[in-house]
C-alpha cells in the first residue's frame, strides 16, 4: 500500500524559539529511519517544553507524517527519549516501563504499542488509533488474588482519555478524531471472534461498527503481537474468517428476498381472482419489481395485495 503524501518538515536543527523544529527529528526518524544522536537528543530534551507553542494543527500534521512513515516505532522512541512524548502524549508516556511497576508482570504495553503501530497499515486513522489504543490500561490495571492481571474496560476508558487529552491537544480533523475514538473503543471486538458466532451476531457486529469496519479489522490485525508459536497466525486467520463471513452475509443481504409462499392464494382471495395463468403473470410482475428494487422482498402477503391495488398492476393481465 503506498504511503500517504505529507509536506516535509523544516531541517533537523533545534532552534530555541522555533518550536516546530523540535518535531523535525521525530518526522525524520519516522519517515527515514534515522534517529538523532545522543547530543541531539540531549538538546531536544532541553527545549522539549517549547513544543507546547506549536499549534494543534502543526502537531497533527507533523506527528501524522512521522507515524505514517515506515519507521513509526522509531519516531515514538525518539519522542520518549527527548521528552516530547511526555509533553504531547503524556497518556502514552505513562505506559513506558508500566509492566515493571509491580511484582506481577504482564505484557510490556509500551513495547507492544510500538510493534502495533509498526505493523498497522499507514493510514492516519489506523496509525493514530494504534498509537493510543492501550492508554486505558494504566488506570484500569487490577491484580487478582489468583495472580492474574486484568485491564477491565480499558478500551472504553481509553476512548474517554483520548477525548479528554490527545483530542484536545492535537488538531485532528473532525472525521479523523471521530474515527480514532471509535477504533480505540472497539479495538478488542474483532479479537473476541472465535468462529462460533451466529450469522445474526456477525451481522450485528458489522452493523454496529458500520463504516469503520475495514479500519477496525486492520487495527485488530496489527494488534496481534504474540510470540507464541502459531498463535499469531491462528488469530490472523480468525480475523480473516470474520471478514469473509461479513462479506458473504452482506452479499446475501443485498440479494432480493423472495416473495412469500402462498402469495398466489392471498392474491386470489383478496382480489377475487380465479386460479390460472393470470395469477402466475401477476406474481412474475411482482417478482420483477422486487428484483428491480421497486418493491420490498420478503414481506407478508397483504403488502403485495396493497401494492397491486395501489399501482394498478392487474392492468394488462386480464384474460
Question: What does this 3D model show about the protein?
Answer:
- It is a single chain.
- With 319 residues, this protein is mainly α.
- Among the domains are: 1-88, no CATH class; 263-311, no CATH class.
- It has helices spanning 24-32, 38-47, 56-67, 72-82, 84-88, 90-93, 109-119, 124-132, 137-140, 154-164, 166-169, 174-186, 199-209, 213-222, 231-254, 263-271, 277-291, 301-311, and strands spanning 142-143, 149-150.
- Strands 1-2 form a two-stranded antiparallel ribbon.
- The chain is elongated, with a radius of gyration of 28 Å.
What value does the Rg take, in angstroms? 28 Å
Q: Count the DSSP helices.
A: 18
- Judged by helices, strands and strand pairing, the structural class is mainly alpha
Distance between the termini: 62 Å
Average pLDDT, rounded to a whole number, is 90
Outline the biggest β-sheet: 2 strands, antiparallel
Helix content: 55-70%
Our estimate of the beta-strand percent is under 5%
User: Secondary-structure element order, as H and E?
Assistant: HHHHHHHHHEEHHHHHHHHH
Poorly predicted parts: 1-17
Strand order of the largest sheet: 1-2
> Care to count the β-strands?
2
Shape: elongated
Amino acid at each position: 500500500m503506498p504511503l500517504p503524501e505529507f509536506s516535509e518538515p523544516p531541517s533537523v536543527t533545534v532552534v530555541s524559539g522555533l518550536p516546530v523544529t523540535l518535531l523535525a527529528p521525530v518526522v525524520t526518524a519516522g519517515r527515514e529511519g534515522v534517529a538523532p544522536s545522543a547530543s541531539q537528543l540531549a538538546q531536544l530534551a532541553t527545549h522539549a517544553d517549547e513544543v507546547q507553542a506549536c499549534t494543534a494543527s502543526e502537531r497533527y500534521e507533523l506527528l501524522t507524517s512521522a507515524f505514517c512513515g515506515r519507521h513509526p516505532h522509531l519516531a515514538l522512541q525518539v519522542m520518549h527519549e527527548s521528552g516530547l512524548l511526555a509533553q504531547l502524549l503524556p497518556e502514552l508516556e505513562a505506559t513506558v516501563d508500566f509492566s515493571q511497576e509491580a511484582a506481577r508482570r504482564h505484557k510490556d504495553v509500551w513495547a507492544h504499542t510500538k510493534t502495533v503501530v509498526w505493523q498497522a497499515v499507514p493510514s492516519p486513522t489506523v496509525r493514530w488509533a494504534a498509537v493510543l489504543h492501550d492508554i486505558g490500561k494504566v488506570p484500569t490495571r487490577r491484580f487478582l488474588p489468583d495472580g492474574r492481571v486484568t485491564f477491565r474496560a480499558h478500551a472504553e476508558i481509553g476512548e474517554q482519555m483520548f477525548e479528554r487529552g490527545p483530542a484536545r491537544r492535537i488538531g485532528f480533523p473532525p472525521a479523523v478524531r471521530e474515527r480514532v475514538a471509535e477504533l480505540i473503543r472497539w479495538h478488542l471486538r474483532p479479537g473476541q471472534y472465535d468462529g462460533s458466532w451466529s450469522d445474526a451476531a456477525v451481522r450485528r457486529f458489522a452493523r454496529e461498527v458500520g463504516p469503520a469496519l475495514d479500519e477496525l479489522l486492520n487495527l485488530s490485525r496489527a494488534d496481534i503481537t504474540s510470540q507464541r508459536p502459531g498463535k499469531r497466525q491462528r488469530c490472523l486467520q480468525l480475523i480473516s474468517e470474520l471478514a469473509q463471513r461479513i462479506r458473504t452475509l452482506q452479499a446475501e443481504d443485498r440479494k432480493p428476498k423472495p416473495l412469500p409462499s402462498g402469495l398466489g392464494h392471498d392474491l386470489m382471495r383478496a382480489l377475487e381472482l380465479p386460479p390460472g395463468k393470470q395469477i402466475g403473470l401477476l406474481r412474475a410482475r411482482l417478482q420483477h419489481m422486487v428484483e428491480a428494487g421497486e418493491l420490498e422482498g420478503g414481506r407478508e402477503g397483504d403488502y403485495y395485495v396493497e401494492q397491486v391495488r395501489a399501482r394498478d398492476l392487474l392492468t394488462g393481465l386480464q384474460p
